[in-house]
Design a protein that fits this description.
single chain, 265 residues, alpha/beta, 7-stranded mixed β-sheet, 5-stranded mixed β-sheet, 4 helices, 16 strands, globular
Length: 265
């Protein structure tokens, strides 16, 4: 009997989808093209058709109207695949939907921060926040790797191979084996690699600018913290290569520091 007789026509399962944020400070396509060209160094495979959320929360109210056709075409030119728009005004919803994009709600963290500035805070003891414990969806993109979940942490004890993508949703990521070239590791919190870090490492994926990347041996192709990228086409800085180091975000700059000193690159 055919196997298809026992298969459902469609199944819906929980999955982990990672999208990058393209945070626009201008809608000027010429300026955006120049910035993307500088970011990618002209490389045609810097991005890999990554799902992309266009965040227009930084656009000034007086900014020129967004040319959605032009912006979408420009991002696709750099192999970014727009799927949604964040922080859009309600009157933009129809135009956004007409281009096949969904409208994400405004950044709750930013809205809460603005509300807190507008309203004096009342002194009150803050209750301890529960430690986030990632659910089964956090393992959806862990392919052929052994993962151990502890409160607020995902632990990987096996090498991360080329083509693998591991995402620690809502927690830190600890890897005790080598991360190979062509692999991608992502965490909403910080990343700790107790071995050599090659490939791509993206910490603070949900916008946590305080996240950091630590490794006993640094040799990544690309690092990112809270959406701010830095690539190493000419190789990782020699004074920090293959030695214990950390990467952090200072303003809009990615800094590399020794784990044991204040020196940086």
């Amino acid at each position: 009997m055919s196997k298809s007789l026992f298969q459902k026509p469609i199944e819906i399962k929980i999955s982990t989808v990672v999208a990058v944020s393209a945070i626009l400070s201008t809608a000027d396509r010429i300026a955006l093209d120049a910035a993307l060209k500088e970011m990618t160094g002209g490389s045609t495979d810097f991005f890999e058709d990554d799902l992309t959320v266009i965040d227009i929360g930084n656009l000034a109210p007086s900014a020129e109207p967004v040319d959605w056709d032009g912006i979408i075409a420009l991002l696709k030119q750099y192999r970014l695949n727009p799927v949604a728009v964040r922080n859009a005004a309600p009157e933009m919803a129809a135009a956004i939907a007409a281009h096949g994009l969904t409208v994400e709600p405004a950044n709750r963290r930013r809205d809460e921060a603005e509300a807190a500035e507008a309203k004096p805070a009342k002194p009150a003891p803050a209750p301890a926040a529960p430690v986030p414990v990632p659910g089964p969806a956090a393992l959806a993109n862990v392919s052929a790797a052994t993962a151990l979940l502890t409160p607020g942490t995902m632990i990987i004890d096996t090498p991360v191979r080329a083509g693998q993508r591991i995402y620690a949703r809502g927690c830190d990521l600890i890897i005790t084996a080598v991360v190979n070239n062509g692999a991608e590791i992502i965490a909403d919190g910080s990343i700790h690699v107790y071995n050599t870090l090659n490939g791509r490492a993206l910490a603070g994926a949900s916008g946590n600018a305080d996240a950091r990347i630590f490794a006993l041996g640094m040799a990544p192709e690309l690092v990112s913290i809270a959406g701010v990228y830095r690539t190493f086409e000419d190789g990782f800085p020699a004074e920090f290569a293959r030695v214990p180091a950390q990467i952090r975000l200072v303003g809009d700059r990615i800094d590399i520091l020794s784990v044991n000193s204040a020196s940086r690159a």
